[in-house]
Amino acid sequence: MIKDQLGIACIGEWHVHGKDFADKLDKYPNCRVTAVCSDIPETGRAWAAHMGCRFEPDYRRVLENPEVDAVMITAATSDHGRLIVDAAKAGKHVFVEKALAVSNEEAYAIQKAVTENRIHFTMSDPVMKAPQMFVKRMVMEGTLGMITNARIRVVHPLGIMGQHKPQFYNKAESGGGTTIDLGCKAAHTLYQLFGKPFSACAMFSTYTDMGKANGIDENAVVLYRFPNGILGVAENGWASPKYQYSLEVYGTEGCVTIHDAETAYRLNSGCRVTVQEAELPEPMIYPLDDWIDSIKKDRPNRNYGIEEAVHITEMITAAYRSEGMETAI
């Protein structure tokens, strides 16, 4: 039964985007945040007061509450498996911040629970904005000819500046370093463009004392091999001197690039063309919008669903296994 008013509980304060998501949720028509659940009572109560809802430290009681239709999970990645499986079994819809899980086995258990209990699930990782959709259109329409290789770089300086949140250096909670963080965005973009890869080969580096003490990757390069011989390089790190985003896709008939805010392409038959903002297509639907709409209309979500989330987990875990074994996976 589709309810007029959708009650959503916010679970966990581990991830930095949790409170932003909650503020957005509260602005959706016929949606309201009904509870905040956190293992840090002081900040959890403050968050609940800000949202004008109750604070509930017991997750079990949140799931038993008939006023809670869905949960937004921004807890530690290592807790995702337990939290999502329990929510699915309780019939609660789930929105979760990337990454989905710290292992393939946990991801498969989540997928089983989501599928068997027929809940609406979305993972937040909005990588396909207007410029990326332009790149995808050129790839899908064959404008670049046969695609040969691609490179994506997603980096920031917070690690070497000592400004990153300390929980990202807690391997037991995060599941890893930059590869399971920014590497999700890089891998996810390549997945959106080329599908699921066959293999991965990774190399990591660490620079700070905190990174070395905790065995955290702060800089990473992962080479993925996709169908049709496409090679995709994913560079990600917390050790760049500045924030930087680059995406380059090369084919036999030309190339298309995104460098920070500029999108451009060059075909073999012509000159370099800078794409104006008005020429860009619509971005892929924002994950939170898609999730809310899928629940209200009881329809399948368009993107960022459980199968996609599992595939991204497989790409990330393959990178970690490859680096650990010093071989391609």
TrEMBL record:
Family annotation (Gene3D superfamilies): Dihydrodipicolinate Reductase, domain 2 (3.30.360.10), NAD(P)-binding Rossmann-like Domain (3.40.50.720)
InterPro entries: Gfo/Idh/MocA-like_OxRdtase_N, Gfo/Idh/MocA_Oxidoreductases, GFO_IDH_MocA-like_dom, NAD(P)-bd_dom_sf
Molecular functions (GO terms): nucleotide binding
Boundaries of every Gfo/Idh/MocA-like oxidoreductase N-terminal domain copy: 17-118
Record-annotated GFO/IDH/MocA-like oxidoreductase domain positions: 135-256
Highest taxon of the lineage: Bacteria
Name by which UniProt lists this protein: Oxidoreductase, NAD-binding domain protein
